[in-house]
Amino acid sequence: MASGKQESAAEPEPRQTSQENTHEPRRTSRENTPEIETDIVGRKGSHMEKSALVYIVLTLVTVGFGFCVRNSTYTAGYLSGRRMPGAPVGYDRQQARNLVAETAVFCLLAGVSACRIAVGGDYWVYWLKFQLIDQGRHVSYEKGFVGLVKLFHWIFGEGSYLPIFGFFSLVTVFFFLKALHDQADWYVLSLFLLLTQGFYFNSMNSVRYYFALALAMYAQKYVLRCEYGKFILWVLLGCTIHKSVLLIIPVYIAADLLSRVRLKKWHYAVGLLLILSLIFGQGFYRNLIFKFYPYYKDSMFDNGQLSYVNIGKCLAVLILCLIYWKDSIRDDRRNRYYFYLNLAGLVLYTCGSFIPEVSRVAYYLIQSQIFLIPGVLWNAKKGWFRNLCIVGVVAAYLLYFVMLLRGMYDVEIRLLPYLNWIFN
What is this structure's pTM? Predict the structure, then answer.
């Protein structure tokens, strides 16, 4: 997706709306809120700087802690399944530093997310669905999510919603950061990308989807370790919350298999056929999609617009990889895996705009950029050009983060003003 406003606002998609799950018209927060005053939609007055400062300071402080983490030796050994030369035996001082810094990052990110109230365009939509579940009425959420809502209502009482949002904040942030711990060679840069690309902040909006995305990022370590059975089990767990995560099973395994072989002509031929099928077989794919998601047909999300921002990101990452192909991609299987996922994301964004909310699929692919960009720059030959690339990446994503903040007041995003149940 790529409406003009959404692209300038750092692409808040994919997002969850009531239209995704029912045929009822979308309700605003003023219709759904229980007791809190919610006349805050779209306000950009005196609250703007203060609320935005919460996210800015959070980003600065957590990235600061990220500089304390050094775990490249651990990730290389863990993902390869063997001990790397120079790796410490037992628990050393650096690992203790890593533990303290990563724990601090988790507490900060999880705390800001878990303590929010009336933050996120879908916050009160979810609240409404919780009430419908209490009443025994049908909602088109996955059974695992419905079961969790019932469990929390049994423990905390009917009508409770803060514990549910808090639980998903904790587990989503945990899976995001555990993925970085296990896979990021350059932890601080991966953390910076996780925040400035909006994955963390948007998890306060589309709760179910970003839980599935975080779990997908975590579970792909089993693909890299060639433990496909464990990977599939984690994905099956995730699909009880958001079934879109099932799509990653063939895609991640295919990317891993490609990363382990030298490409031959028939590989390129198959890839070309897949691209042509997206161009000339749109009717087939749309009919297949609408069998599972009939409410998307002719909806506001079925607009066929290109996401120029995400195309640009994927293309820029592709160029960076080609520049440092010999240094960072050719002989590094893990980076090749992330490279193929990014390439698949580029193809999907350019040829799959006919898919409603295409980013619901593509984000599972371009999450690889969080690991690919630092991995490429980490292994690149040191020199002025590498330094220039690092500065360029940081500057580009800082600009992207500014765009994200500017768009957070949009009625469809509503991540600002930031409110929490402690002070508000």
Answer: 0.86
